[in-house]
Amino acid sequence: MERFAAGGQAVLSGDFVVTGVLGTRVALRTRESLRDPDADPKRPGGNAALIVVEYPAGVAIPQKDATFSRDAARGFVIRDVIRGRNGQITIVANERAAE
To answer: Which of 12, 13, 14, 49 sits CB 3.0–4.6 Å from 76 for a disulfide?
Structure first.
């Protein structure tokens, strides 16, 4: 994740795998976390967080098991980071609208 100055947007970039699709919401994991047998979704700073991305209407939604990469210029805009009761870390983000 890249960090920006106060007031700027936090953007998530990297290599992703689609693990689920529900309507306009897509569940992602990083490729690295899926290959790492020690990845722990409950450990802060780890790479195993669940990423839920909301896609706007009219934007093509990737299919389950699709893989893709995003650089900082085209990354997902982070809306929230949530730690669930079981410790699971979930990053909630938006797909950027076409510019």
So the answer is: 12
DSSP letters for 26-75: EEEEEHHHHH-TT--TTSTT-S--EEEEEPPTTSPPPPTT-EEEE-GGGP
Q: If pLDDT is split at 50, 70 and 90, which confidence band does 3 have?
A: very low
Superfamily of domain covering 11-94 = Nucleic acid-binding proteins (2.40.50.140)
Domain ranges of the chain: 11-94
pLDDT by residue (tens digit) across 56-81?
Answer: 988 899 999 999 999 988 899 999 88
What is the pTM for the complete model shown?
0.80
The tens digit of pLDDT for each residue in 82-93 reads 888 878 888 999
Residue with tokens 């100055």: 5
- Among 20, 22, 95, smallest CA distance to 53 is for 95
